[in-house]
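PROTEIN–LIGAND DATA SHEET

This sheet pairs a single protein chain with one bound small molecule, coenzyme A, given as SMILES. Inputs appear in the order they were entered. The predicted three-dimensional arrangement of chain and ligand is reported afterwards as a token string under its own label.
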Amino acid sequence: MEILDLRHFSSVDLRPLLDDETQVWSRLLTWDYSGSAEMILRYVDAKILPGYAAIERGRIFGYSFFVYEGSKGVIGDLFVADGGRLPNAREVELKLLTHVIETLQQSPGIHRVEAQLLAHDAGSVARPFLEQGFQRHQRLFMVLPLNQAQAGKIPTHPDVDIRRWTEADYQPSAAVITAAYRGHVDAQINDQYHTLTGSLRFLNNIVRFPGCGLFDSESSFVALDRKAKNLIGLILCSRVRGDVGHVTQVCVLPEFRCHGIGESLLAATMGNLRKRGFSMLSLTVTEANERAVALYRRLEFESKRVFDAFVWEG
Ligand SMILES: CC(C)(COP(=O)(O)OP(=O)(O)OC[C@H]1O[C@@H](n2cnc3c(N)ncnc32)[C@H](O)[C@@H]1OP(=O)(O)O)[C@@H](O)C(=O)NCCC(=O)NCCS
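PREDICTION REPORTED AS:
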């Protein structure tokens, strides 16, 4: 087995592996990975995707890639065919990660590395991260089956309006995100939340790029202070499969919390998806974010997987 630079290969070499990965994402996360796979293949053909491929008898059977975002490196993915079943698959995953981590930590100007490995069980590939001084945060992948018959009511508030998210909400949404995550554990995991520019970049990634599913404006809502008319909370949802929605963001300004606004935003999204015949809604949440986890449990979301987020600051 050899580990080689991913930029030596083309989409023809990588496609069979990504077809396997698409099946795994569908099974583990009810997520249609084919849109992301096509994007990865385009970058591979353009020879601009940094990463590594595991090769045996001329065939790619594992890969990991990363992207540079200013002074940050983000590990985009890690996948090895038959991961967990082949006796040496785990070893190959660890080798690929070791190469990626080393490359990123030695890249000039890179001061931070982030990774979230949704399709890997917590702890399963933690070793190379922990050995290189990364912090680890356990996160939950939660799902709620959307029973059409159970169209619950959206709780209303005398001082708050809930309406659909529009493009005009871009700037105020970024301001709410920045304020909502000040001092929050998720701002340790994703440093985009630290600044208004970073939150705008986060929004742009969610709304304009298909990496995390296709943004679904119909099931995305904002909460407004009825008197002042300003935005005080929001929920953004993407379509990760024909009939599956995924909450990519939900937050409420600190001074408006504990009045049921978060629950109303989630109920608005759930109601919209039910009406349109969706069968499931999923989301991810950091285990240490106990308030949010309690809220999701109360709304009958169930934890389906536990995965790791890793962060290194050099
Ligand atoms: C998570 C978050 C969106 C919840 O928003 P919220 O408006 O406070 O949510 P709710 O008011 O609906 O529910 C929160 C709690 O308030 C309680 N509550 C709801 N209405 C209430 C009322 N009228 N009076 C007192 N308490 C009330 C709920 O019982 C709930 O308690 P629980 O934590 O034990 O479940 C908000 O805390 C937030 O923005 N956090 C930072 C960002 C974040 O963590 N987002 C989630 C990332 S996955």
